[in-house]
Specification:
This protein is an alpha+beta fold. The protein is built from four helices and six strands, in the order ββααββββαα. The chain has a single domain, classed as Hotdog Thioesterase (Thiol Ester Dehydrase, Chain A), CATH 3.10.129. The longest helix is centred in the N-terminal third of the chain and has 18 residues.
């Protein structure tokens, strides 16, 4: 795990055999899983309590859009660094960008996800109105730079 600043975070994954297809190349569905893992670790790192928000307040962060641009194949047993950066946060929506890098720094893929905050009725909410502490953590973290 490597930390760059409060708006960017990085995890390292070693590709497991079950994450590959018959060519021993990472199956495309795993990029989405790795983006989620990096995002969750980013939230933990900055002190944003996603599990509390979801369990106690009923606020969820669905993926509204996701995309991955594949540059080079990632194979079984390789180590991959997944960089995660929050590019936008306004209290209603947030966007993340991702880079998948080999250990020697070769760009393997790029991704983006876009998210919104919703309540248990699937209605959009303003985070500052329903989870002020979480809003403050994200806002303070992203506005430091």
């Amino acid at each position: 795990m490597q930390i760059f600043d409060n708006s960017e975070f990085s995890i390292v994954k070693r590709v497991q055999y079950h994450e590959t297809d018959s060519m021993r190349i990472v199956h495309h569905a795993n990029y989405v899983k790795w983006m989620e893992e990096a995002r969750l670790e980013y939230f933990r790192h900055i002190g944003f309590d996603w599990p509390f928000m979801e369990k106690e307040l009923g606020i969820m962060i669905p993926v509204l859009y996701q995309s991955v641009d594949y540059k080079n194949a990632i194979r079984f047993d390789e180590e991959v660094e997944v960089k995660c950066k929050c590019d936008k946060f306004n209290g209603v929506k947030m966007n993340f960008s991702y880079e998948f890098l080999s250990i020697v720094g070769i760009l393997l893929a790029k991704g983006i996800t876009k998210h919104g905050f919703i309540n248990s009725k699937f209605e959009a909410v303003m985070l500052q109105d329903v989870y002020r502490d979480g809003y403050n953590v994200l806002n303070r973290t992203l506005n430091q730079f």
